[in-house]
Amino acid sequence: MFNIDQFKLFLISLFFLTGSMCFAQEEKSSEYHFYRANLLYEKGNYDEAIAEYKKLNEKSLESGNFYYNIGNCYFKKGDLGKSILNYEKAKKILPRDKDLIANYEYAKSNIEIKSIEPKSLWIIKEVDNFFEQFTIDEITKVLFIFYIILLIVTGVCIVLRIPTVKKVMVISVPAILVLCNFISLSKRVDQINKEAIVIENKIEAKFEPFEKAATHFILYEGVKVTILSLNGNWCKIKRIDNKIGWINKDQLSII
Predict the structure, then answer these.
(1) What CATH number does residue 40 fall under?
(2) Which domain holds residue 47?
(3) 118 or 32: whose pLDDT is higher?
(4) Do 8 and 99 belong together in one domain?
């Protein structure tokens, strides 16, 4: 007969065995949906493929490849807005994937009318372009490393009593790196749930948040905007050229 300790051990073993079986079944089910979705995509059944990919999304099994494949499906369907939307989501996870970047840039080239980019210093553009190659997690880790280096360099300069001019020169390098990382990270964090893609073919951005308001400018499918505020069913948005207007929130999808 079992004693109480053996019975406890039996229950614990049963618990872990059941959990492992459920996890294995869940993993098998996810692999099946992903395989089936890829197969449907290859056969040109894009709507069915998207439905299979979304089943993975319902299980919170998101990945860069997941969004990349959905973006490809929408692009093949001719749904430019939703294809760019999913490419943008994939870029947040796989910012250096060459195939993704190529498809993303090609999709953007199909936008009917592109926004005029605001003028800015070339060095700011270069810094922004550089940090776009990294995820938020990667930027955070690099910021921490540079911050530690800055503290070490500063401490060494103080202990060794290095002359002020040389001290400033030595400390300025890691300090500038920390500052650039911090600014980039702040921008990226501030963009969370504020960047969106226009998913309708052609919409009118209004001066005010109601239908009869005068049209300020036109937005085309696939254009990225920044959400500034909400007013009922209306979104106050800013285009990349800093023009601000109001559009219906159903005409956008948050990245």
Answers:
(1) 1.25.40.10
(2) 4-108
(3) 32
(4) yes
Query: What SS3 class is residue 197?
Result: strand
Three-state DSSP state, 201: coil
Cα torsion 169, 173, 179, 185 to 10°: value is 180
Tell me which residue of 240, 247, 128, 234 sits closest to 195, measured CA to CA: 240
For 95-121, the pLDDT digits (tens) are: 999 999 999 999 999 887 765 666 667
Assess whether 170 and 228 both reside in one domain: no
- Based on the fold, state whether residues 36 and 82 are members of the same structural domain: yes
pLDDT digits (tens, 9 = 90+) for 225-234: 999 999 989 9
List, edge to edge, every strand of the sheet that includes 252-254: 215-220, 202-206, 244-248, 234-239, 224-231, 195-198, 252-254
Helices (H) and strands (E) in the chain, counts: 8, 7
